């Protein structure tokens, strides 16, 4: 036994001596053999940086695929600039502002970003980037420039589609499905912040389904900590492989710059809006004709609901509307639509709006304490498309 112990001790001593020599003289051998990050990076869609060893991960391939499709959008509009300081009172400001000789027309320029989504010249951007613009110019990464016109816009999601005047056979983005996104996935934001030129920033998906921010009528944002700054609006949010997963739309900031809280419109929503605009010039949205209300603790007690019942109570149903024809009543609690659970009013309205008019939707409801399902034919929201 003593002999075996001596052999073991000597083997350990020799191994430690070899490790010490290698660590001192050739540490690069340990980096080549040890890290498992290269296979993991390959599985994630990124590759080791060229000439840097297998332990360093780069997103260069994804950026190279996505960057050519991201463009700079320059807009010009004319505004009335007062020649003298106007009073603080809004009525007086409007009165004096409309008087002849009190103001002059001046050209105002602004910048943003956009994403080429078709080879024939369609560009997806934010509505606020091109709102009220008198002239729009688009600059590609290869130096080409072209004028553009607005095909259509959807203020409810802050999206707009442009069409380039002459350029064709363009580098279109590869559109992914945002349904595969998870919190923690790596994403890259590409745009033109502050007009410095095309810039790529990296971060992760911080949250999904953000709403209640007061930015749009229908909110279902991807939240990311990838740096998004003024000028990034309308630019691309892509995954590690360079596939478009969202359109950068807004930031939360107290200073005007990035604070690590940015919001992007998911590409599945943007794709539907874009398709409707290209085909019809506007966006058709689903409509049921109901007045929903969040289930408060008081209402939950009144309806004898459990703590985890969830759902949205129907406070009003429009006569002869889609919901009324489908059998929905005041007091019903809608717990799901097509199997997707409804947690609050914003979620319910957003889900209804995404349903194509004419489609049959299955509503899971709670009525008088009993679960039931209703088949409702979705109507078209009145007044649309614009």
UniProtKB/TrEMBL annotation:
Record organism: Achromobacter seleniivolatilans
Protein name (database record): Trypsin-like peptidase domain-containing protein
Keywords in alphabetical order: Hydrolase, Protease
Gene3D superfamilies reported for this sequence: 2.30.42.10, 2.40.10.120
Boundaries of every PDZ domain copy: 277-344
Protein's UniProt keywords contain Protease: yes
PANTHER family hit by this protein: PEPTIDASE S12 (PTHR43343), PROTEASE DO-LIKE 8, CHLOROPLASTIC (PTHR43343:SF3)
One Pfam family per UniProt: Trypsin_2
SMART domains registered for this protein in UniProt: PDZ
Top-level taxonomic group: Bacteria
Keyword Protease: yes
């Amino acid at each position: 036994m003593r002999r075996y112990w001596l052999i073991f001790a000597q083997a350990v001593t020799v191994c430690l001596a070899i490790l010490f020599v290698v660590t001192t003289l050739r540490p690069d051998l340990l980096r080549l053999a040890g890290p498992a990050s290269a296979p993991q990076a390959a599985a994630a869609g990124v590759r080791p940086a060229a000439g840097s060893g297998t332990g360093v991960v780069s997103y260069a391939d994804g950026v190279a695929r996505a960057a050519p499709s991201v463009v700079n959008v320059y807009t010009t509009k004319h505004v009335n600039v007062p020649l003298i300081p106007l009073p603080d009172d809004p009525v007086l400001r409007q009165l004096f502002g409309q008087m002849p000789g009190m103001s002059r027309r001046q050209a105002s320029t602004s910048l943003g970003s956009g994403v080429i989504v078709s080879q024939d010249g369609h560009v997806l951007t934010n509505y606020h980037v091109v709102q009220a613009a008198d002239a729009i110019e688009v600059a590609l990464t290869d130096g080409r420039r072209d004028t553009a016109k607005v095909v259509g816009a959807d203020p409810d999601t802050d999206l707009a589609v442009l069409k380039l005047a002459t350029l064709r056979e363009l580098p279109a983005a590869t559109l992914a499905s945002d349904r595969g996104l998870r919190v923690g996935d790596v994403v890259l934001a590409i745009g033109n912040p502050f007009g410095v030129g095309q810039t790529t920033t990296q971060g992760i998906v911080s949250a999904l389904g953000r709403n209640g921010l007061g930015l749009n009528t229908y909110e279902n944002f991807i939240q990311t900590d990838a740096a998004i700054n003024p000028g990034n609006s309308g630019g691309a949010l892509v995954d590690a492989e360079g596939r478009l997963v969202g359109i950068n739309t807004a930031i939360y900031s107290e200073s005007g710059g990035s604070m690590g809280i940015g919001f992007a419109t998911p590409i599945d929503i943007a794709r539907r809006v874009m398709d409707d605009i290209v085909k019809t010039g506007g966006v058709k949205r689903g409509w049921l004709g109901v007045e929903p209300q969040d289930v408060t603790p008081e209402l939950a007690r009144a309806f004898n609901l459990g703590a985890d019942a969830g759902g949205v109570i129907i406070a009003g149903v429009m006569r002869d509307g889609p919901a009324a024809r489908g059998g929905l009543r005041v007091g019903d609690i809608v717990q799901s639509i097509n199997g997707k659970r409804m947690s609050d009013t914003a979620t319910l309205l957003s889900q209804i709006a995404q349903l194509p008019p004419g489609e049959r939707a299955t509503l899971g409801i709670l009525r008088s304490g009993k679960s039931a399902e209703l088949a409702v034919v979705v109507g078209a929201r009145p007044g649309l498309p614009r």
